[in-house]
Predict the 3D structure of the following.
Amino acid sequence: MYRFRFNNIENTSQYEELIKEFLQPSEYGPEGDTLLEYDFMGDKEEVKRQIYRDLSSRTGKSPKWGILTGIRPVKLAGELLDQEKDPESVLKESYLVHDSKRALVRDILDYQRAKAGKPDPKSLSVYIGIPFCPTRCLYCSFTSNQVQQDQMEPYLAALKKEIEYAGAAAKNAGYKPETLYFGGGTPTTLSAGQLDSLLTKVSDAFAIGGVREYTVEAGRPDTITKDKLQVLIDHGVDRISINPQSMKQETLDLIGRRHTVEDVYKAFDLAWKVGIEVVNADLIAGLPEETEADFARSLEEIIRLGANNITLHTLAVKRASRLKEMDENFNYKDEELRERMLASAHETLRGRGYQPYYLYRQKHTSGNTENTGFCLDDRPGLYNIRIMEEAQSNLALGAGGISKIYFPEENRLERVANVSNYEIYIDRIDEMIERKRKGFFI
Ligand code: SF4
């Protein structure tokens, strides 16, 4: 068991993520008999490189993301490029990132620059949160509530009030929404009538003529009906997500999704029939009891269904999830299996003409991997790209929304948060609006 000592370093928690890439929680602590000592010599990256090399030789592990523990490697590469540095050599020399990850980052960065360009300084991405889902998934750590249809009404009334204010304030300030995104939760938990009224409020409040992408997450296939999809089409929605996570029924039952594989087939069929242009499908590598073959089969199925955006996630077990309560060390099991699942999925997708267009890394993810979005036919999810590059203001409405105002001269963001509990949000809606007025539309 190891024990760490950092000399002349105040914030030692910044090294914790890196240490976790090599050691399980039971392998280090204040009682450890092997002391590893590091001195701060003026460069925190240098300390990380020392830790990496040290633990690499002791454990035999060589995490492919090197000492990079941040969640946005493509953003970092883009900033290096803007400073006229060579991202690949900096990622290699300073961050010890392996070849395969450097190539992936560069490929995505070049694609983003070519297809999405840089955002206009007065453009805006708008996020609207619907914090309801039919049931709670085993691994969920988001704001998700299970309530009856009529209990959603007070929330929708408060949300509309915020939309009305924010739309008018955005117009006044000269902002032009570039993307609109309904997330959650699962927005399609709302009825067709509720969706219609909400989306009407959005188009009345905001100048949406120039919007390049309008997404509504319809993640849970059992919430999708023809009527709801027709409402989305009528309001100009061109992108939805139908998220199977797995196409193996036993897994869906195990993770508490309630829907069936059959529901996924039906949802895709409906989406194409009503004319949705882009359907994203999320898959998770590393779900309980899944094999490599299970994961590969799920991927083949969603390709066959025609998903033109596919996002590969690695299971991240966070503190608030039921899975974490059930199995504290779930994250540290089968890391190699998850890496193999993702590596072969990348190969399959590339072979079928899919291009990786964005990636992000999550904390608490197993196997030192990343989540990657792929697209077909040059239809990347623009909202996702903008959120990850953090070079545009994001106006986030609804419970749990964290707006970010971007200051281009300083390449800096400031956050303005709404409360995440939807009942408190309803009670304090006027205060949420006031926060926006003071913090966002200054
Ligand atoms: S669909 Fe998403 S937000 Fe809803 S319970 Fe499952 S993981 Fe949570």
In short: The chain has 16 helices and 13 strands. Residues 1-62 form one domain.
